[in-house]
Amino acid sequence: MRDQLDAMIAAAPVWRRPGMRAMFALASRPRGLALLHRLTPADQAATGMLALARYDDPDVARALGWDAHAVVARGHDSGARTR
Fold first, then answer.
1. Handedness of CA 52, 58, 62, 63 (dihedral sign)
2. Dihedral (C-alpha) 32, 52, 9, 30: value to the nearest 10 degrees?
3. Mean pLDDT calculated for residue range 25-43
4. Which of 19, 50, 69, 78 is deepest in the core (most CB within 10 A)?
């Protein structure tokens, strides 16, 4: 998951990257998350972004009901039927 977070941070504007790194570092630790809970928008943003990064793991995504290979296969099937 670290690679996905690094890519997400790298895609952000330069001025926002240090804050994102700090927020993700805090959200990944119980005490840090407890601190972020004092700033409700910040804890929601951090936990939401961490959850999105987990979707890049195929096993986690499948367990949550998202199978990328099945979606691609359905797209190919529907495209073949329309031709």
1. negative
2. 10
3. 82
4. 50
